[in-house]
Specification:
By secondary structure, this protein is mostly beta strands. The protein contains 1 helix and 4 strands. It has a domain of 44 residues. The protein is elongated and about 50 Å long. This is Type I restriction-modification system specificity determinant protein.
Length: 66
């Protein structure tokens, strides 16, 4: 069986600080799901969100701006 590092199979990105963003319609995801909605986004498209903290059973598939 061939072994791969995750970075060889997927592009890995990190979130940004959302506290200075204004209210809007773009979801901000945290470990438990949508935390709030803001007026700007850092990514648009299909993605699997893996939590930085907490449980790995809280994966999210999203499509669109977030």
């Amino acid at each position: 069986m061939t072994k791969y590092k995750l970075a060889q199979l997927a592009e890995i990105k990190y979130g940004k600080d959302h506290k200075k963003l204004g209210k809007g319609s773009v979801p901000v995801y945290g470990t438990g799901g949508i935390m709030r909605y803001v007026n700007d986004f850092i990514y648009e498209g299909e993605s699997v969100l893996i939590p930085r903290k907490g449980s790995l059973n809280n994966l999210f598939y999203v499509h669109g701006k977030f």
